[in-house]
Write a structure and sequence with these properties.
The structure holds two protein chains of two kinds. Chain A is an alpha+beta fold. Chain A has two domains: 50 residues, SH3 type barrels; 119 residues, hypothetical protein PF0899 fold, CATH 3.30.2320.80. In chain A, the strands form three sheets. A five-stranded antiparallel sheet of chain A has the order 3-2-1-4-5, with no helix packed on it. In chain A, helix 2 packs across helix 3. Chain B has a single domain, classed as P-loop containing nucleotide triphosphate hydrolases (Rossmann fold, 3-Layer(aba) Sandwich), CATH 3.40.50. Chain B contains eight helices and eight strands. Chain B has a seven-stranded parallel sheet, with helices on both faces. In chain B, helix 1 packs parallel to helix 4 and helix 2 packs across helix 8. Chain B starts with a strand and ends with a helix. Classes of the chains: A alpha+beta, B alpha/beta. At the A-B interface, helix 2 and strand 11 of A face strand 1, helix 1, helix 6 and helix 7 of B. Strand 11 of chain A pairs antiparallel with strand 1 of chain B, so a sheet runs across the interface.
């Protein structure tokens, strides 16, 4: 993921805006923006400053952040599949995303929602199944999962061995979709 | 109606990466995807590496930056073919961006192509571009917490160059922890300690890279 997070402006008081970032409220400075955004606009926030007003078109062009290019790839794949299957619209798309895939699910949903308007996926929701990082120990031969949010393990949780193979947690795939 | 898809999201990228890889293989050029944070010393390592390896083979460089051509100018001054890609905001190079500039690179005349990725410790690790190996530069000034904070790039890399070791007396970095955590994430990682400022360690690194290629 990339470090500038798109955030919605809730209210503005002079050069300070209250923003909503995936449900959390924060105050950011508007000092670096050439002109003030409006309520409801999205801005990119980095280190407490709004650094750019976000144009929806640029977001959709995949330039703004990492998850946007992933969202566009999802839409490409879904459109191709719909052509193939002859379906007109998609209600939901089920994804499997590994914890160590480098994807923020919230940012992916945001980017997807901002990109889907003119496509066959315009009414679709993303349903994201996250896959914990896991593997097999080469010494005790047991399977293991890393703790829930961990992106890595340093030793086998069963026997402490540092010889193991990571087999899960990098997934980034579309499983299926509900269409009509 | 439920429609099965079961497709990797980055499949399109991986397909183009595979085409690039075939093109590189047909031209007999070994390709390195060089990653690391902004300021780690990617371009400085490139300059040192080119100087060390120029007598041993022909080298080309693709420079990836969000904007600007400063890096390409630095590399061009060493009299090797260089192409600059500006991603215009994107945080990584992808296979398509590389594919689009390959015609500008005299691949058949090259032994080694180094692709300097956009400065970023996260996203570049996820995108194949058709390389033989990924590698990364981490400067000791970035701190020993980096391997466990950004595990993916360490897992994906074949080599880790720890740069700026001349600064070790001035920074609170435990280089042993840096090494040990990196190896815990990726036991096959080959680690080099260098200083691009003084030239320390460069010969050993360049020799290893040259050995991989040939």
């Amino acid at each position: 993921m990339c470090l500038a997070i798109p955030s919605r402006v809730i209210s503005i008081d002079d050069l300070t805006a209250t923003i909503d970032v995936f449900g959390a409220r924060r105050q950011v400075s508007l000092m670096l923006l050439p002109e003030a955004p409006g309520i409801g606009d999205y801005v990119l926030v980095h280190a407490g400053f709004a650094i750019q007003k976000l144009e929806k078109e640029r977001l959709a062009s995949g330039e703004i952040m990492h998850e946007a290019s992933i969202a566009l790839s999802i839409i490409d794949i879904v459109q191709a599949k719909c052509m193939e299957e002859g379906c007109r619209s998609v209600d939901s798309i089920r994804l499997r995303i590994g914890r160590a895939a480098g994807i923020l699910p919230e940012a992916l949903v945001f980017a997807f929602d901002a990109s889907k308007d003119t496509t066959v996926a315009k009414n679709a929701n993303l349903v994201i199944e996250t896959v914990p990082v896991g593997g097999t120990c080469r010494d005790c031969r047991k399977e293991f999962d890393a703790p829930e949010n961990a992106q890595y393990v340093l030793s086998c949780p069963h026997c402490g061995s540092t010889s193991y193979e990571i087999t899960r947690g990098r997934e980034m795939e579309i499983l299926d979709m509900e269409t009509n | 109606m439920k429609v099965k898809v079961v497709t990797r999201i980055l499949e399109a990228n991986d397909r183009i990466a595979e085409e690039n890889r075939k093109r590189f293989a047909a031209a007999g050029v070994y390709v390195v995807n060089l990653m690391g944070a902004p300021g780690a010393g990617k371009t400085s390592l490139l300059e040192r590496t080119i100087r060390a390896l120029k007598p041993h083979g022909r080298i080309g460089v693709i420079e990836g930056d969000i904007v600007g051509s400063d890096d390409a100018e630095r590399i061009g001054a060493l009299d090797v073919p260089v192409v600059q890609i500006n991603t215009g905001g994107a945080c990584h190079l992808d296979a398509n961006m590389i594919s689009e500039v390959l015609d500008e690179m005299p691949l058949a005349d090259l032994d080694l192509l180094i692709i300097e990725n956009v400065g970023n410790l996260v996203c570049p690790a996820e995108f194949k571009v058709g390389e033989d190996i990924k590698m990364m530069v981490l400067s000791v000034a970035e701190g020993h917490d980096k391997p466990l904070k950004y595990p993916l790039m360490f897992r994906e890399s074949r080599a880790l160059v720890l740069n700026k070791v001349d600064l070790l007396p001035y920074v609170n970095t435990d280089i042993n922890k840096m090494r040990n955590d990196s190896l815990a994430l990726n036991p096959n990682l080959k680690i080099f300690e260098v200083s691009c400022a003084t030239g320390a360690g460069i010969d050993q690194w360049a020799q290893w890279l040259n050995g991989l290629r040939s």
